[in-house]
Amino acid sequence: MTAADLRIRPEPGSFRDPANRVFHLGDQVLRGLGPQGAADWRALAGSEFFAALLAEGKVCGTTPVDPATLPHTGWTTVLRHERIPFVSHPYEWSFGMLRDAALLHLEILRRALEAGFTTKDGSAYNLQWRGASPVFIDVGSFVPLTEGEPWAGYRQFCQTLLYPLLLQAHLGVDFQPWLRARVDGIEPDQLRPLFRGVRRLLPGVPTHVHLHGAMQARNAGASSSAVAAQLRDAGYSRDLALATVRRLARLVRRLDRRVGGGHWIDYQRTCGYSTADRAAKEGFVEAAVAGVDAGLVLDLGANDGRYARIAARHAAQVVAVEQDPAVVDALYRALRAEGDQRILPLVMDLADPSPGGGWRGVERAGFADRAHADVVLALAVVHHLAIGRNVPLAEVVEQLVGYVRPGGRLVVEFVHPQDPMARRLLANKPAGLFPDYHREEFARLLAARCRVERQLELPCGTRTLYQAVAGG
């Protein structure tokens, strides 16, 4: 074990709860608990509902660790969690993903309340994914219930889960940019102006937007303990809390995307690939991934997930990145129906990937800091970045290679300027704007950063596939 393996590294996104904090030791994900957190954990660990959630895979795997086996941490109790294959953020999820995450959050809260526990938080960031299955990760959020106490996480739940869903379901507005802009989610005052007139009466809006916003304004100067005391005096109870959670779950379950298919929803039908082209491309990709012991594969510009599915036959985890939220949602729903545990679909514009955000810009890591893959698939994306988004070809190559770990493999497709899809993009640009966009220049740039192992020109004659090793 190296000195780096023995160094404790605090998780930048875990600092808001002083009772516990997540940190890393080598490849281990650990959680330190103070005296009160340790007492809460002992109660939780002895409960039947928590054991059932663990067995069902709805809460991340958690076991206690003997502190004597670790470097000094200063915590009373230490827990070891399973490592989530790829950490993602709610603004990278599709509508269906956010809705299913909200439903799991509410299910866990309901079962906790029934067993005499509650959760301190209600944030969407308390959930991650195993493929297309959500999993609750904030084990330190569970505490024994105090009768008459309101759910402390209600505001977070509204701002990071319910409000984004209402925005999409009722107004047809993609929620991802809203969540990306504010780590704490959407405030009621931001949403209320959008729900005036008859929109005030849309499901969930009167109670959870207007009434909630008015109550926040009324109690702005009051302490949380004073508000809790008022609720207890008014007869608030666990039964009322359970009824509220059940109503929230019914509301969330009824919400769905307002808009239909996205621009790329029919890409496989309209892209112009012949049967021979598709077969050659699929064979090239399969051979490239099968030849690597891949823990993580990135499929950039995944569309309907055709190549992500091929990669998943040979890799532990595939992250399928696509810009169009409707396309990602369709892929997610298909994967969820199949019970997939290997492919994680994400919404992201490769010309504007997720930056670091939150406190000091590191609380939520940027995509480039999370994406270090054994294999990167970049199929039919270079021309969209270089021509469609005016990114210099050298910069495109630099970005793609940057996602590959040293010694990892890049599988990239170059669409020639004579190809119908490239010609369509070039038709909307001034003549002569991209003099360097040609196969020879792309091959030169790729060879300068990688060791090219093989290449294949597709039968159409206007597309070339490359397999290269980063750092070669």
Topology:
Layout: E1 8-10, E2 20-25, E3 28-33, H1 35-45, H2 48-55, E4 62-65, E5 77-81, H3 95-114, E6 117-119, E7 127-130, E8 133-136, E9 142-144, H4 154-171, H5 176-181, H6 188-191, H7 205-218, H8 224-233, H9 238-254, H10 267-270, H11 275-290, E10 294-300, H12 306-312, E11 315-322, H13 325-338, E12 343-347, H14 367-370, E13 373-378, H15 382-388, H16 393-402, E14 404-415, H17 420-426, H18 439-449, E15 450-457, E16 463-470
Parallel strand pairs: 10-11, 10-13, 11-12, 13-14
Antiparallel strand pairs: 1-2, 2-3, 3-5, 4-5, 6-9, 7-8, 14-16, 15-16
Helix pairs in contact: 3-4, 3-9, 16-18
Question: Explain this structure to me?
Answer:
The protein is of the alpha/beta class. Helices cover 40% and strands 19% of the residues. It is built from 18 helices and 16 strands. It has helices at residues 35-45, 48-55, 95-114, 154-171, 176-181, 188-191, 205-218, 224-233, 238-254, 267-270, 275-290, 306-312, 325-338, 367-370, 382-388, 393-402, 420-426, 439-449; strands at residues 8-10, 20-25, 28-33, 62-65, 77-81, 117-119, 127-130, 133-136, 142-144, 294-300, 315-322, 343-347, 373-378, 404-415, 450-457, 463-470. It has a 7-stranded mixed sheet with strand order 12-11-10-13-14-16-15, with helices on both faces. The longest helix has 20 residues, at 95-114. The chain is globular, with a radius of gyration of 24 Å. The two termini are 28 Å apart. 41% of the residues are buried.
